[in-house]
Amino acid sequence: MTSSTQGISRRAFLAGLPSFSAGTTLFLFSPASALGKKKKSRPPLQPSEELAEHVESLGRQLLSTPLDESGPLTSQIQKLVMDHLEAWMAGHLPGSAPDGTPFDVRVRREMESAFSKLHYPVFGHPKVFSQPWNGGVLTGAGYTLGWSDYDRVNVIALFESREGKTRLVGIHHFVPRTDLHYAFLPAPDPTSFRFLAYGIRLGKSQPRLSAVLYEYDGQSLKSLWEKRDIYDGKLEVDKDSLVVRYLNEDEYIRELTYNRHPPRHMAVYKSTPQGLKLDSDTEIPF
Predict the structure, then answer these.
(1) Residue 143 phi, psi dihedral angles, 5° rounding
(2) How far is CA 1 from CA 4, 11, 13, 51, 52, in A?
(3) Cα–Cα distance between 125 and 271 in angstroms, integer?
(4) What's the burial of 228, exposed, middle or buried (CB within 10 Å: 0-12/13-18/19+)?
(5) Strand segments (E) across the chain
């Protein structure tokens, strides 16, 4: 104490201090409440933000779900994404935007917004193409939804734009456990459109290639040809042929046991009205 309070008892000193009411104390420690200010509410989410948050909520649940039990969750995500994309496509026709952005890029960005809140290891990777066909435009809007290196599902939707309108003409589920890419083969009949979907699945020693040939005939989307788990497979399109280079797994293991280089193989598939037909399968140098 200072000299002015020397000789005064503690009780007498405290008694001389101003008293504070409960209301005054609330004013000192809660100025916002005392002034009548309300806590700011969160601004309403935009539709794309609501979609992304819903997809993210379902995506979190996939982390504890095996691939063979994931159907209920992945189906909900597919419906959310495709319903949104179908509505978006109805209001956005093919062609470049005012800033020159190609249509397939705009579609991809719209799909990316749906997956924008997913957190590693959950991811959604869109794959989109847009090509003129028979006086209209066909847009393939697919994606890989994954939650590990092995737990992955693939969805491919095809849209047709014609005379100022766009409609969804088919949805297919490409091979699970792979990523997703496209390649294009000319159709024997100009009234149909064909494309290859292919992807790589990680394996114990070598990656595995899977591919499906799809055709759209103006009415429906269907698969014509399929190969799965081609050992160390690599493909390319050569005019109207599909060339696949690969290893024979048993042969590869046997030759490595004796410290020898196994041969590679090259299969050539020719396009036919029914799909793809094996034309040749030969050995090539490793």
Answers:
(1) -155, 155
(2) 8, 14, 10, 65, 64
(3) 30
(4) middle
(5) 123-133, 136-146, 152-162, 165-174, 181-183, 193-201, 208-216, 221-231, 234-238, 241-246, 264-272, 275-284
Q: Whole-model pTM? A: 0.82
Token pair for residue 107?
């579609």
Residues 6 or more apart in contact with residue 110 via CB below 8 angstroms? 84, 85, 88
For 42-75, the pLDDT digits (tens) are 555 566 899 999 999 999 999 999 999 999 999 9
The one-letter amino acid code at 43 reads P
Measured between alpha carbons, how far is 16 from 35 in angstroms, rounded to an integer?
A: 30
Helix 47-62 to helix 71-90 angle (10° resolution) is: 160
Position 148 scores a pLDDT of 96
Helix (H, G, I), strand (E, B) or coil at 27: helix
- Distance CA(196)–CA(183), nearest Å, equals 5
Judged against a pLDDT cut of 60, whether residue 90 lies above it is answered with yes
Evaluate whether 285 touches 264 at the Cβ level (below 8 Å). yes
CA–CA dist 219, 221 (Å, integer): 7
Helices (H), the chain: 10-15, 22-29, 31-34, 47-62, 71-90, 103-114, 249-257
Distance in angstroms (rounded) separating the CA atoms of residues 286 and 48? 50
128/200 Cα distance (integer angstroms): 17
- pLDDT for the residue numbered 42: 52
Q: What does the DSSP 8-state code read for residue 68?
A: G
* Residue matched to tokens 């405290």: 14
The model's pLDDT over 214-257, given as tens digits with 9 standing for 90+, comes to 999 999 999 999 999 999 999 999 999 999 999 999 999 999 89
Residues 142 and 180: their CA atoms lie apart, in Å, by 8
